[in-house]
Amino acid sequence: MRIFGVILIVLGLLICLTIIGIPFGLFLMFIGTLCAVFGGRRRTVITNIVQVSTTPGVQMAQVPHDDDYRDGSRTIEPPRAEPRLINPPRSSEHGSAGYAYDRNKWNALVEYDGDIKRIVEGLQPYGQTYIDQLAAAFLALNDKEYLPVIVKKILETARQDKSAAGTR
After folding, report:
1. What is the mean pLDDT of residues 90-113?
2. Domain parsing of the chain, residue ranges
């Protein structure tokens, strides 16, 4: 578009050399200037949008049980990078609610997102502490792609806690 604007400016200048063509030449130069100045602007693309839902066709990992890892037959492959899980704080650290995440947002996700609801139901036998870890980690990352890794780490933590409690 900028090249077209420069061509119009030069053409308008040539037309202005004749007395009769001055109004038309000035008009062409004006349009050419607009095309040259505004014609080649690059558009800004916003790339930092976070999407909570998955795209069609993406399968979510099911919550594995302790027996699933004994024979080594099931493995969950991690995505790009592994997230760090944060332990839920005690109630004295964060006021009376005691949660390290937005409880209302998490409750809405559990209620309306089938994948998260199934994972929460699978983690309920382990206890609320591990569900709180899932909520804090998922809301920090806000990407379903990391759910298999988060669940795997939570189950490893639950197994370690169970074995540590059994040795005491």
Report:
1. 70
2. 2-38, 66-167
